[in-house]
Amino acid sequence: MPCLNVSTNVNLEGVDTSAVLAEASKSVANIIGKPEAYVLVVLKGSVPMAFGGTQEPAAYGELVSIGGLNPDVNKKLSAGIASILESKLSIPKSRFYLKFHDSKASSHHFLLTRHIIHRFFAQTLVGMAPPSRFEVRGRGSSEGNRCCLMSYPLHDGVIRTML
């Protein structure tokens, strides 16, 4: 689940933040190659910050993703998000800093997000009970070759959902 968190010293009152969020979400999904349904974008305004010794409009962002990041992708993401901030918030591209973190999938991560995964499927498959079984499968390598298996009991059997 890619997460883009952007803070800026620009006051967002009167700004169409929906357009900024939508454009950033679409851009992150397209560049990383993950479904937009999994992208989270947070935008905070009026955050006191100085960049290069001045308090002119500036922004700082962090992007965390489970895979999908590499130097080429990072350059495209920096350019894409900087363009959005420049066009929508009048923040010069030279006054934006974006930090990347490629979080490798692990059983620890999936166990921490079990409730998020369940909530997603509970919203998708309305009225279902919590999973009867939850496990992480995979080779256990540090490269994150793992997946989650949740089993949901149904009146006529069991549906298994792989993530």
Automatic annotation (TrEMBL):
<dbReference type="InterPro" id="IPR014347">
    <property type="entry name" value="Tautomerase/MIF_sf"/>
</dbReference>
<protein>
    <submittedName>
        <fullName>Uncharacterized protein</fullName>
    </submittedName>
</protein>
<dbReference type="InterPro" id="IPR001398">
    <property type="entry name" value="Macrophage_inhib_fac"/>
</dbReference>
<dbReference type="Pfam" id="PF01187">
    <property type="entry name" value="MIF"/>
</dbReference>
<comment type="similarity">
    <text>Belongs to the MIF family.</text>
</comment>
